[in-house]
Design goal:
The complex is a heterodimer. By secondary structure, chain A is of the alpha+beta class. In chain A, 18% of the residues lie in helices and 22% in strands. Chain A has a single domain, classed as Ubiquitin-like (UB roll). Chain A has 3 helices and 5 strands; from the N terminus they run ββαβααββ. Chain A has a 5-stranded mixed β-sheet with strand order 2-1-5-3-4. In chain A, a hairpin with a 5-residue loop joins strand 1 and strand 2. By secondary structure, chain B is an alpha/beta fold. Chain B has 10 helices and 26 strands. Chains A and B meet through helix 3 of A and helix 7, strand 22 and helix 8 of B.
């Protein structure tokens, strides 16, 4: 189980508890604004773009090759960018805060 | 009547329907929402049905678009496993079984139906189509005992199924009527790439083949062509022969229909209280200056957002880019835009196995679409350029020594 805080594009904080899936599915299941997960989580659409809190980057880890390529030219992309669908929920992520980039 | 007393009835429970429920509630629309769907469950992601869902060892559970609690929490009334038989536009009711369900706003999200080619014997129980979760489950069960599967049609569904079945070691024959695979959606160069990809993975791929009869002989199915010659034998057959819009209900209600239900920029039909969205509708797209009927997740989602805005009286969202994807073996194809009508196709990179490349489609110098094969950068960049109406330089496009990002600053032709 991990408690994740999502900060939506309009500044709302949504706290979600999840024990499986990804940062994308946990958000979609809880109607977190700005995360769509259109492709269902196969790294095809970038509708789950998030920024990871700097203090958590090491624990979350870097984007994979295909994911990094998707993110490179995406609006709002920074070194803190990840696609939520590529970050599995795991107990070590308990307490994580992410910012939803939205479109 | 106040908005809170309004009743919106959505016919069809696919991706667009789920998105419309979410978008209406997100916009605080207070009215009553009823979702009528003929499948037994809540809306789920359909694309995995032809991919990961066919793997016998894979998690067979469906991926829901929104969890079941969502519909209760957002007060969406679900009428599942129920079919709307007709629309009474004068009385503003739909017939669902014995019930006449009144509506103030009706949204048709009836999707598309698989085309069934005129083949004698197509009704054989070991001939499968793929559209619903039930179809995928039936196919997954039957595939366990099959050694050889024949797939009729080399469109996205046919090729994705071929890929999924090769992964689990089945012998696969793909039969395509046209002279190349994916002929309706891509250029000859990209078709050639996908043909070699499948052949390298052991698929017996044959183009220019038309099946006219299926016969069962000694437990096997035999596929025959128009001259009654045997094309191949198989234990089961999968049809992937394309789809047509499910616009029967609209036609019956005298709504304007022409390759899909005709809708305006707000996705309204010729009846101002009836909307249509997703695969079943056909809309003029300013970006392409033509009517398009698209079968895609993107189209379902974006049109649902348009209708939500229209129902809530909000400004319509800006026109969005059509996009598509297909996963076959370890290859990801991402398509930005619609390439139909291109007059120039420029390849960037070499279309060979284990490489990434992209095909850039221009129409009178303007970029209209890109097929990106294992090349997400090209895909993302293309999306931006297409929406800007860019006219990228063919020299830069074709020269892999030059960064694609150059195109963002200098997007005019040098020739």
């Amino acid at each position: 189980m991990a408690r994740i805080t999502y900060i939506t594009p309009d500044g709302q904080q949504v706290v979600v508890e999840a024990s499986s899936g990804s940062l994308m599915t946990a958000a979609v299941q809880n109607q977190v604004d700005g995360i769509e997960g259109a492709c269902g989580g196969v790294c095809s659409c970038a509708t789950c773009h998030i920024h990871i809190d700097a203090a958590w980057m090491d624990r979350v880890g870097p984007a994979g090759d295909a994911e990094a390529a998707m993110l490179e030219l995406e609006d709002g992309s920074t070194s803190a960018s990840r696609l939520g669908c590529q970050v599995p929920i795991r107990p070590e992520l308990d307490g994580l805060t992410v910012r939803v980039v939205g479109r | 009547m106040s908005a809170a007393q309004q009743h919106c009835v959505i016919v069809g429970a696919g991706h667009a329907a789920a998105q419309l429920c979410a978008s209406l509630r997100q916009a605080q629309w207070p009215g009553r929402i009823t979702l009528v769907g003929d499948e037994p469950g809540i809306p789920y992601h359909r694309p995995p049905l032809s991919k990961s869902q066919l793997h016998p060892g894979a998690d067979a559970s469906l991926q829901m678009i929104r969890p079941a609690e969502f519909y209760a929490k957002q007060q969406v009334e679900l009428r599942l496993a129920q079919t709307v038989q007709s629309i009474n536009r004068e009385r503003r009711t739909v017939d669902v079984g014995q019930t006449k369900l009144p509506y103030d706003t009706l949204v048709l999200a009836t999707g598309s139906l698989n085309r069934r080619p005129p083949i004698t014997g197509i009704e054989h129980p070991r001939v499968f189509s793929l559209r619903t979760a039930a179809d995928a489950e039936a196919l997954r069960d039957q595939v366990q005992d099959a050694e050889h599967v024949a797939i009729i049609g080399a469109g996205f569904i046919g090729l994705e199924v071929a890929s999924a079945l090769r992964k689990i070691g089945r012998d696969v024959t793909v039969l395509e009527m046209a002279n190349r695979v994916l002929s309706r959606v891509t250029s000859p160069a990209v078709s050639a790439y996908f043909s070699s990809l499948h052949r390298e993975h052991g698929v017996d791929l044959r183009t220019g083949v038309s099946v006219s009869m299926i016969q069962e002989k000694e437990g096997h199915l035999t596929l025959l062509d128009g001259d009654d010659s045997v094309v191949c034998r198989a234990d089961l057959i999968v049809l992937g022969a394309g789809a047509r819009p499910n616009d029967d209900l609209a036609r019956l209600a005298n709504l304007e229909v022409n390759n899909g239900i005709l809708v305006d920029e707000a996705n309204r039909t010729c009846d101002p209280v009836i909307f249509a969205m997703g695969d079943c509708c056909n809309q003029f797209r300013p970006l392409y200056q033509t009517r398009l009927r698209l079968e895609s997740v993107q189209n379902a989602i974006d049109q649902a957002k348009i209708i939500a805005a229209a129902i809530c009286g909000l400004p319509l969202p800006a026109e969005t880019l059509p996009w598509f994807w297909s996963d076959q073996y370890d290859v990801k194809l991402q398509i930005a835009g619609v390439s139909a009508g291109y007059d120039e196709c420029i390849l960037r990179g070499v279309a060979k196995p284990d490489s990434s490349f992209s095909a850039w489609y221009l129409q009178r110098d303007r970029l209209i679409a890109v097929d990106a094969i294992n090349d997400p950068r090209a895909y993302v960049l293309a999306g931006k350029l297409i929406l800007r109406g860019a006219r990228p330089s063919p020299q830069v496009l074709a020269d892999t020594g030059r960064e694609l990002k150059e195109l963002l600053s200098s997007e005019t032709r040098t020739s």
